[in-house]
Write a structure and sequence with these properties.
The complex is a heterodimer of chains A (756) and B (157). Chain A is α+β, with helices and mostly antiparallel strands and 756 residues long. Chain A is built from 20 helices and 28 strands. The radius of gyration of chain A is 27 Å and the shape is globular. The model of chain B has no long low-confidence stretch (mean pLDDT 96). Classes of the chains: A alpha+beta (756), B alpha+beta (157). At the A-B interface, helix 9 and helix 19 of A face helix 1, helix 2, helix 3, helix 4 and helix 5 of B.
Chain lengths: 756, 157
C-alpha cells in the first residue's frame, strides 16, 4: 500500500539530528522491517539490576522459582509501554502477564531505540555497519516519537521467540527427545507424548547456554493470546495507592532538596546573588550554588519548601535582553515567512508560477503561539556524586541522555554512573531534555556524598523551558471548478526544534535547521491530490529555547493544513468531509478512516438545533487519525464541546485499551492548547507563571470521546501522539460551521470564545 | 507540632507556616501526596482533613493540628482497596498517574458527601487537573464506585 512505502523525502531528512532525531517526532517514518535483535549490539548488556536467575538475552531473565524478569528499556510516562513491551515478549515466550516482573535496565547498547536513529530500520539492516558504528558511541536509549511499538514490534517478539525455542531445546535435550515433541505453554515446556513438564525456571540455566541460528518464526496472529487484546496495565495498581515512585518521590538516604531559579531573561546571565549571606542564613538552607555560565542559581535546603522560599528571596545581579516581546516575535515571523525559504521539502510542479498568474487565489495566514509542556510532575532530577561514581534517580524519556547529563554536569565517567529511571509524571518531550540532569549533577558535584534532588517549581518550569515554537504559515491555493487543487503553497516560519534541541543535547551533531525533519511534518506527505504543491520553511532566530512537544511539527502544521483544507472546501461550496474524500482517492487507508469517522458521527445528517460538526484528518507517527468535533452553541461565543469521534488506523494493535486511552489523552492535550495555551513575552519575560495563567482543560470542559480502532493487518504505527494534531482543527472547523468565523490563530480564548 | 495522619500521631519540628504538603513529603517521606503547582490550583496535593478534601500545598501544617488527616496511603481499609481504588483499576484510569492521588482523594470525598453523583455533580466537584486527560475514565470509575458502594449498603445484614 502506498502509505507504507519509504518516501523519497527520506534521504533529505535526518543525519544531522542523530542523537535526538527530534526525540518526539520526525513523523516521516514509513515502512519498518529488519531486526535489531540480530545485530551484535543486541548482546551488549550487563544484566545489572536483574536479580536472580539466568539471562536468555538482554530482555529476559528467568529465576529458579519461575519468575520471568523482563527488561523494559523504555520510559513509562502513562502511555503504557511497561505493559505493551512485556506483552510482545510474553506472547512469543508463552508466559502469562502474571508470571512477569519488570525492570528498567541500564542504558546499554542492546536497548537502543533504532527508530530514533534512523527512520527506516530496513535501511539500517541493509547497512548494519553504519548502525553499529553509531551505536557503539551512541546507544540512544530513549522513548519518544511514538516509536516504542514500531521500534520494538519485531525485535521484542524475536527476544521472546528465541528464548522460547532455547527453553524447548533445553527440555528436549533433558528428555532425550526431538524438539518437535515438546511445546511451550504458561512458562513450562511440555512433552507431547508423556505430558511430563519442566518449568522455565528449571530449564533456564541449560537454556542460557544454547545458541540458535536465526530467529524462529513468529506466532500467527490467529494464535495470539495477548496481542490485540485489552490487557490490564502492570503499573496501575501502584498508581492508585500512592506507592508508585516518580522522580520527585526518590528519597535516597540523606537527600537534600534544591530549587532552581533560572536567569530571568531567556538569553540572560546571573552574575551573583547580592544577598547570598542572608539566603544562606535562612532556615534549613545549606548552600547556594551558582550554575555554570550563570544560567541559574540553586538553593539547597533540607526541605523543598525551604529551598523554594530561598530562591524567592534571592536578589539577583543579572543581565539580559529586556526588549523581547511577543509583538517582536510576530513581526520577525512575518519577515521570515515573506522572505527566502531555507528548505522546500515538498515541491512538485511549479505552484508559485501557477499561483502568481491565476485568478481567484485563496490566501490565508495562520499562526500559533509558544506552548509549555506543563507536565503534571514538576521537572526534577536527583543525583549523588561520590568520587568516580554517581547515581541518578529521575523519570526521563532518555536513560542514555541521563548518562550524558550526569557526565556533563558532574564530570563522572559514564561507566561509573547508575541510572534509576522512575515513573514520569508526564513527559510530552520535556523529559527528553538534558538540562535537569546536568543541573542536578553539577550541584551534586559541589556537595559530594549528598544526594541532591533538584526541582523546578511550577513557576520556574513554565517560565523557563523549551517551548513548542511559535509558528506562522502563509497559504495560497488555486482550486479548479470541481474543487481539485491546481496549486497549493504553504510557507512556514518558526524556530527549528531539531536544531534547538540538538544544540542542547549533542551540539557536535548539529547541522543546519534546514535539515530538521520535524519542521514540515504534518505539512507534507499529505494524502490530498495536488497538481502543483509547494511547502517551504524559514528559520526564525530568537533567544528562546524550543523543544519537542507532543506531536512536534504536526501540532502546528496539523492545525494549519486541516483548517486551510476546510477553507478550500468552503471556497468551492463543498461539504468538508465530501471534499476531503474527493481528494484522497489514491489512499484507501485514509479513505477508510475518514469514512468511519463520518459514519460514527452521523456526518451530514441533520443535527439538533445549535449543534455543529467539524472534521480533521492527519497521518502522523505512522498512524492515520480522523476526528469529528461535536459542539453545541450555548450562548454568544459560548460553546460546549460535547463529543469527539476519533478513528485510528495504527496497523496491528498491541493493547487496544492503551490505544483508546492514548487517543482520548491526545485529544484533551490538543484541546488544552487550542482553548487556552499560550506562552507570551513582555519586556523580556514570560508572562505566564502557573496554571491560573496557563490553564488546562478540566473535567467540566472535557468532551466525551468515542474511539474506533481500525482492524488493519499492517505493521504497527505509533499511538502516543497522533491524536493530538487533529483535535484543534476539528474544533476550529466546528466553530466555523457554527459561526462562519474562520479561526486562524490559537488559543481560542483570544477570540472571545468561552467553553463550558 | 503533632499531626494525626492515617490514624497515627507524628511529631514534627517545622515552621508554623510550612504547608502540610511539604511536611508529608519531605519531613515524613509520605510521597503519595503530590506537588503540582504550589498555588492550590491543580489539586494534586489533595488530602482529607476530618473527611473534607483540602489542597495542602498552601495551607500550613499547623492548621491541621487536632484534625484527622487521611492521605492516599490511608484510604485502603485493612489492606482492602476502597471502592474508588478498585473502580480506578477496573477502568484503567491512570496514565502517568501523577495526579491520581489527588483525583482519588477528591472522588472519595465526593462519594462520601453525595453517594450517587450526576455528571453535573462530578463536573462541579472534580476540578483537579489531569494533564493526560483521563477525565472520561475518572467519570466512569466514579459512577462504578458509586454503584458498588450502594449495592454493598443495600445488602441485608
Amino acid at each position: 500500500m502506498s502509505d507504507n512505502k519509504p518516501s523519497k523525502a527520506k534521504k533529505w531528512t535526518r543525519r544531522a539530528f542523530i542523537g535526538t532525531g527530534g526525540l518526539l517526532g520526525v513523523g516521516l517514518i514509513v515502512g519498518v522491517g529488519g531486526n535489531w535483535y540480530l545485530s551484535k549490539n543486541a548482546y551488549n548488556y550487563s544484566g545489572k539490576g536483574f536479580g536472580d536467575g539466568h539471562s536468555l538475552n538482554a530482555w529476559i531473565r528467568i529465576s529458579p522459582d519461575n519468575r520471568i524478569t523482563i527488561a523494559v528499556p523504555r520510559a513509562e510516562m502513562g502511555q503504557g509501554v511497561h505493559t505493551s513491551v512485556p506483552m510482545l515478549i510474553a506472547e512469543e515466550l508463552e508466559v502469562r502477564m502474571s508470571d512477569i516482573d519488570i525492570i528498567e535496565p541500564q542504558p546499554e547498547p542492546a536497548y537502543a531505540n533504532t527508530l530514533l536513529l534512523n527512520e527506516n530500520p530496513k535501511d539500517i539492516h541493509g547497512s548494519l555497519k553504519f548502525m553499529e558504528k553509531i551505536s557503539h558511541f551512541l546507544p540512544l536509549v530513549a522513548t519518544g516519537g511514538s516509536t516504542t511499538i514500531p521500534d520494538g514490534y519485531d525485535y521484542m517478539r524475536s527476544a521472546g521467540a528465541t528464548a522460547r525455542e532455547m527453553l524447548i531445546q533445553a527440555a528436549a535435550e533433558k528428555w532425550g527427545v526431538d524438539k518437535s515433541e515438546c511445546y511451550a505453554k504458561d512458562a513450562q515446556v511440555i512433552n507431547r507424548k508423556t505430558n511430563e513438564r519442566f518449568t522455565y525456571g528449571e530449564l533456564a540455566e541449560a537454556a542460557s547456554g544454547i545458541k540458535l541460528s536465526g530467529i524462529p518464526k513468529f506466532k500467527e496472529k490467529k494464535d495470539w493470546k495477548l496481542l490485540g487484546k485489552p490487557v490490564q496495565r502492570l503499573d496501575i495498581p501502584n498508581k492508585v495507592n500512592g506507592k508508585a515512585v516518580f522522580g520527585l518521590d526518590a528519597r535516597p538516604e540523606g537527600v537534600l532538596y534544591g530549587a532552581i531559579r533560572h536567569a530571568t531573561y531567556h538569553d540572560g546571565v546571573i552574575n551573583g546573588v547580592t544577598n547570598q549571606a542572608e539566603i544562606e542564613a535562612m532556615p534549613g538552607v545549606r548552600k547556594v550554588v551558582l550554575l555554570p555560565k550563570g544560567m541559574g542559581v540553586v538553593a539547597v535546603a533540607d526541605n523543598t519548601w525551604r529551598a523554594k522560599n530561598a530562591i524567592l528571596a534571592m536578589q539577583l545581579d543579572e543581565t539580559g535582553d529586556k526588549t523581547l516581546s511577543s509583538e517582536k516575535v510576530e513581526e520577525h515571523a512575518t519577515e521570515v515567512v515573506d522572505g527566502e525559504m531555507i528548505a522546500a521539502p515538498m515541491n512538485e510542479g511549479d505552484a508559485q508560477a501557477v499561483l502568481d498568474n491565476a485568478e481567484g487565489v485563496i490566501e490565508a495566514t495562520y499562526d500559533v503561539p509558544y506552548l509549555a509542556h506543563a507536565c503534571m510532575e514538576p521537572i526534577n532530577c536527583t543525583v549523588l556524586v561520590k568520587g568516580d561514581k554517581a547515581e541518578a534517580w529521575v523519570g526521563h524519556q532518555g536513560s542514555s541522555i541521563v548518562l550524558d547529563g550526569v557526565n556533563a554536569g558532574a564530570g563522572v565517567k559514564k561507566a561509573g554512573i547508575t541510572v534509576n529511571n522512575l515513573y514520569l509524571g508526564g513527559g510530552f518531550g520535556r523529559r527528553a531534555e538534558i538540562d535537569m540532569v546536568v543541573n542536578a549533577a553539577y550541584v551534586a558535584s559541589q556537595m559530594e556524598g549528598t544526594p541532591i534532588q533538584l526541582v523546578y517549581t511550577r513557576e520556574e518550569d513554565i517560565r523557563h523551558e523549551m517551548y513548542r515554537p511559535y509558528a506562522k504559515a502563509k497559504f495560497r491555493a488555486k482550486l479548479n471548478e470541481d474543487g481539485s487543487i491546481e496549486a497549493w503553497e504553504n510557507k512556514l516560519a518558526l524556530q527549528s526544534v531539531g536544531y534547538s534541541s540538538i544544540m542542547r543535547i549533542k551540539p557536535a551533531f548539529a547541522d543546519s535547521p534546514a535539515k530538521d525533519a520535524s519542521t514540515p511534518e504534518g505539512a507534507i506527505h499529505l494524502p490530498y491530490n495536488m497538481k502543483n504543491a509547494y511547502m517551504g520553511f524559514g528559520q526564525m532566530e530568537l533567544p528562546i529555547q524550543v523543544g519537542n512537544w507532543r506531536s512536534v511539527g504536526n501540532s502546528h502544521n496539523g492545525f494549519f493544513t486541516e483548517c486551510f483544507i476546510d477553507e478550500c472546501a468552503n471556497a468551492v461550496g463543498k461539504d468538508p468531509y465530501e471534499y476531503r474524500k474527493s481528494l484522497i482517492t489514491k489512499h484507501p487507508r485514509f479513505s477508510a478512516v475518514l469514512d468511519k469517522v463520518a459514519e460514527m458521527s452521523n456526518w451530514g445528517k441533520p443535527l439538533p438545533e445549535n449543534r455543529f460538526h467539524g472534521i480533521a484528518l492527519l497521518k502522523s507517527f505512522r498512524s492515520i487519525v480522523a476526528q469529528v468535533a461535536e459542539v453545541t452553541k450555548v450562548g454568544d461565543n459560548q460553546f460546549s464541546i460535547d463529543k469527539f469521534y476519533c478513528v485510528i488506523d495504527c496497523g496491528r494493535v498491541v493493547n487496544p485499551d492503551t490505544v483508546e486511552a492514548q487517543m482520548v489523552s491526545g485529544i484533551i492535550f490538543g484541546l488544552s492548547a487550542a482553548l487556552y495555551g499560550e506562552i507570551t513575552f513582555k519586556d523580556g519575560e514570560v508572562e505566564q507563571f502557573n496554571f491560573p495563567q496557563y490553564e488546562m482543560v478540566r473535567m467540566n470542559v472535557a468532551p466525551t470521546v468515542e474511539v474506533h480502532i481500525m482492524d488493519v493487518d499492517e505493521y504497527p504505527g505509533g499511538v502516543g501522539e497522533p491524536s493530538t494534531p487533529p483535535a484543534a482543527p476539528a474544533l476550529a472547523n466546528a466553530l466555523f460551521a457554527a459561526t462562519g468565523q474562520r479561526i486562524r490563530s490559537l488559543p481560542l480564548k483570544n477570540h472571545g470564545y468561552e467553553f463550558v | 507540632m503533632e499531626l494525626k495522619i492515617n490514624g497515627k500521631l507524628h511529631t514534627v519540628d517545622v515552621e508554623e507556616n510550612m504547608p502540610l504538603l511539604w511536611v508529608l513529603r519531605d519531613e515524613l517521606n509520605m510521597t503519595g501526596t503530590k506537588y503540582g503547582c504550589g498555588v492550590a490550583s491543580c489539586g494534586a496535593c489533595t488530602v482529607h482533613a476530618d473527611g473534607i478534601p483540602v489542597k495542602t500545598c498552601m495551607l500550613p501544617a499547623s492548621a491541621f493540628e487536632g484534625q484527622e488527616i487521611t492521605t492516599i496511603e490511608g484510604i485502603a481499609e485493612e489492606g482492602q482497596l476502597s471502592d474508588i481504588q478498585k473502580a480506578w483499576i477496573e477502568h484503567q484510569v491512570p496514565q502517568c498517574g501523577y495526579c491520581q492521588s489527588g483525583m482519588i482523594m477528591a472522588a472519595e470525598a465526593l462519594l462520601n458527601e453525595n453517594p450517587n453523583p450526576t455528571d453535573e455533580d462530578i463536573d462541579a466537584t472534580m476540578t483537579n487537573i489531569c494533564r493526560c486527560g483521563t477525565y472520561q475514565r475518572i467519570r466512569e470509575a466514579i459512577h462504578t464506585a458509586a454503584k458498588n458502594r450502594q449495592e454493598k449498603t443495600e445488602l441485608p445484614g
